[in-house]
Design goal:
It contains 15 helices and 20 strands. With about 525 residues, it is an alpha+beta fold. The strands form six sheets. It has a seven-stranded mixed sheet with strand order 8-9-10-1-11-18-12, with helices on one face. A hairpin with a 3-residue loop joins β8 and β9. The protein is globular.
Length: about 525
């Protein structure tokens, strides 16, 4: 009976108010610090509470003006001058200033801070030197020539510059949190996005429309309910009752009242294992490649196992060359490489340690890899399994040999998968290091067109051949959407859906029923 009452309320537009959108994601830690976070769930939340100079278009992902109302670029493509909106405010009423952006970006680059995404700023003059401790703060090419203007000087022209400005790490941080950051204990934060964080708990975030937001008239909802839970049955019940309009996974498909609510789309994402490469013998690419050549990939990377199996790091992009990776078993070459490296037949190799999240799919593939090494070399692997919600924090502790990453590109470009593996990147969790790789990525950043793609493809081939990363699938996005009542949710390759555009719309009524005042 309760199920039918909920359905009647939903049809009448009463299960949720016309101003509220309720969504759900898997249970995970939310950092709230835009400089120290990299989960997909945090990226979704940050589209609501933060806004940079530019934001994502909800369908095309092209840069849309945010705090910047417009910009000018010098003829040589090196100097960008951004003009900020005079009516851009934080939700406490303080104005967003060019100085806020300058100080936030410099804080992000602080070499003592080791923020994850600082490598994205390397195209700015002096940024790489400062973040690695080889340069000075005052030499970074970020300045405020006058009030309301942010000027950025690049090392070389960069066709992808505006795209990366959509990323949450380029958001301004309010002076309160720059001077006395207390992200863990503060009841809220001071953001400048279309919504303010009204309340939070580990299971629920409540967001209210930011009445000081410059474009508040075009914000479609007054309230966002953001749920974090791994209780699949409970979430499915809420979704069936339309008390959740968008669920990012964690739904029991066979318990759905309407299975057509499942939306599956191609996603700019890759899941891969990676070696921790900074301790012997794993520093030697011959050892890494040899172990991977012992694995029967042709039997493991199949469509029976994965929707989109792959041996490539970069998902398919029009015009980007196909790159060869390790895709087949080659026992003879593997044993030859081990002998050259000083480990004939694997003798003397230490036990490799897998650190993986709780996932049967991941456990099955890791076990297949370990079985191949045991059967050929007598090498026994060890497994450390971590609850999924804690996994990405756990890989910061370097007590393993092989880890796992599911990576969604932060912008639609091969660099989103490749730049993170340069030697001095804070997102280089495997400490992969090859000067040739670094040089290829650096060269690509200053090029355009086919030549740029060719340079990046050569770099990708290098890290795959050396066993720095071991891709095995591209992941489609799986979302459950009540499309009849949720407006503004549009599919895109990054599976990121800015909350500014989401709205609760009254569903159509059954035939011969009209809605009164």
């Amino acid at each position: 009976m309760k199920k039918y009452i909920s359905l009647i309320f939903a049809l009448a537009g009463l299960a949720l108010s016309a101003e509220t959108v309720s969504v759900s994601f898997g249970s995970t830690r939310i950092a709230l610090d835009p400089h120290h976070s990299y989960s997909a769930t945090e990226a979704q939340l940050y589209t609501a509470i933060y806004e940079g100079l530019y934001t994502y278009h909800p369908l095309t992902l092209e840069p849309v003006p945010g705090v910047a109302r417009n910009f000018e670029v010098s003829e040589d493509g090196l100097v960008y001058r951004f003009y900020l909106r005079p009516d851009a405010y934080y939700w406490n009423g303080d104005r967003v200033t060019a100085e806020d952006f300058r100080e936030s970006w410099l804080l992000h680059l602080n070499p003592e801070d080791r923020a994850e995404y600082t490598f994205l700023l390397d195209i700015i003059k002096g940024a790489r030197e400062y973040r690695t401790g080889a340069g000075k703060r005052e030499d970074v090419g970020i300045s405020v020539p006058e009030e309301g203007i942010l000027e950025v000087t690049l090392n070389h022209p960069a066709s992808h510059f505006l795209k990366i400005l959509c990323h949450h790490s380029f958001s301004p941080v309010h002076s309160t949190f720059r001077e006395n950051p207390d992200w863990e204990n503060a009841p809220s934060v001071i953001g400048n996005g279309p919504f303010m964080l009204y309340s939070r708990s580990p299971e629920k975030y409540v967001l209210k429309k930011n009445q000081f937001y410059w474009d508040r008239r075009n914000v479609r909802s007054d309230e966002i309910i953001f749920l974090l839970s791994d209780d699949y049955q409970h979430l499915t019940d809420l979704f069936n009752a339309k008390e959740i309009l968008w669920a990012s996974g964690n739904i029991l498909y066979d318990k759905l009242d309407d299975t057509s609510t499942l939306q599956v789309f191609h996603q700019f994402a890759t899941t891969y294992f990676y070696f921790v490469c900074d301790e012997d013998p794993w520093t030697d690419p011959r050892v890494r490649r040899a172990l991977l050549l012992l694995v029967p990939w042709e039997d493991l990377r199949t469509e029976e196992r994965y929707a989109v199996p792959t041996f490539r790091a970069v998902p398919e992009i029009s015009g980007y060359p196909e790159v060869a990776g390790i895709n087949n078993r080659d026992r003879e070459t593997a044993l030859k490489l081990l002998k050259e490296a000083g480990f004939p037949e694997g003798q003397g190799l230490p036990r490799p340690v897998f650190k993986i999240p709780e996932s049967q799919e991941v456990r099955d593939l890791a076990t297949a890899m370990a079985t191949a090494w045991r059967d050929t070399l007598g090498l026994e692997a060890q497994f450390t399994v971590v609850p999924y919600g804690d996994y990405y924090n756990s890989i910061e502790t370097r007590d393993y040999t092989i880890g796992l990453m599911s990576w969604i590109g932060d912008y639609a470009d091969p660099l989103a998968f490749l730049q993170m593996w340069v030697s001095d990147s804070n997102l280089n969790k495997g400490s992969y290091s090859n000067p040739d790789y670094d040089n290829l990525i650096e060269e690509a950043m200053s090029l355009s067109g086919r030549e740029r793609y060719n340079r990046m493809a050569k770099a990708e081939g290098l890290i795959l051949e050396e066993g720095g990363i071991i891709p095995y699938k591209h992941s489609p996005s799986y979302n459950f959407i009540h499309a009849d009542v949720l407006g503004g949710w549009l599919p895109n390759p990054l599976d990121i859906h800015p909350f500014k555009y989401l709205s609760y719309t009254k569903p159509p009524l059954p035939a011969r029923i009209v809605r009164g005042n």
